[in-house]
Amino acid sequence: TALFKQDLKSLFMKNKSISLLNLSLFIILNLIFLTNFVSAQCVINITNGSLGHRLLYTQYENCTINVTSKLELVGKITFKNCIFNMGANAEINMHKPIKSGSVLYRNRVTFENCILDASGTNDWSGINVATGSYLTTISSTRIKHALNGVNGAFQSNCHISETTFNFCRVGINFPNLDNRFDSGTSGFINLSGFSGNKFSNCDIGIKLKGVAYPVNIGLNAQIVNEFALENTGIYIENSSVNISNCKFSNNDIHIDIVNNLTDNKNNVRNCIIKGLGNSITAFNFAYDRSIRVRGNWQTVGISNAKFVNLGHVNAIDIENINNGDFNISNNTF
After folding, report:
1. Does residue 116 contact residue 137 with C-beta atoms inside 8 Å?
2. 214 preceded by a cis bond (ω within 30 of 0)
3. 181-206 per-residue burial string, b: 16 or more CB within 10 A, e: under 16
4. What φ, ψ does residue 6 adopt, rounded to 5°?
5. Measuring CA to CA, which residue among 118, 4, 108 is closest to residue 59?
6. Distances in Å between the alpha carbon of 117 and those of 69, 108, 168, 222, 314?
7. pLDDT digit string (tens) for 293-309?
8. pLDDT digit string, tens, across residues 200-219
């Protein structure tokens, strides 16, 4: 960008009567050269390497990307219709912003209609999103067989919509406390655009631990999020979360809320909660729960939810509570 400004200034100094047409062509050509566009059906093999450029906007379309160990994504990148074959414990990493002079370079990566899956029988690690980085997954992107499908540090920015998580240990995990990605701050996670996502056959669909500022799971009533056949749909520990417009089907535990700190508030609104027991673990009366709330200092609201086909299990199970504040209203059982 600095070179582009310098070239533009030089052009005016040399020819102050430059025509509007020539100026437009000059700008267009510079913008083209500032974009590294890879559109062919390319095959990229990476062991420990990087894609993207700190200064250039990079696009990859219809590519197959084989990662053996670590792939670092740098700058602004869009992957469209790409297939990622990930080796055992392989990582996709988005590191912290880099400051050069007065300029802060952030990583902004979009996966659009991509498949990210293990190349063999062992799980891959997942996508690590550092403090200050921006991740977007959209348009039927599928993340499969990962330890943590999306692993976001505190103060990371994740826009997750129309994305499927299958057979992951944890579909989405907050926070990622690995010091390669976390700046040591606490409390804040920016999870936006969360609608139309599907989680199935994961140990945990979404896991949040120690997130003090409210996280919103579910936005659009017309495009619900679905959690099915999970050991636990959403696990919340010492965090504040608003869950709305979600459908839970045949999970061992649909929503598990654990709290031992003050000032955390959790709300479940406009959700459908149906059946218990997934396809991996047979129904267990001693273990399976619909919504389970445990610990002290709980502030929990459950409203306008519909509980269906729960058998003999409690729709809302409250255990070992001291100093709890509950608002349970307008639900259908």
Report:
1. no
2. no
3. bbeeeeeebebebbbbbbbbbbbbbb
4. -65, -40
5. 108
6. 14, 21, 10, 29, 37
7. 999 888 999 999 999 98
8. 999 999 999 999 888 999 97
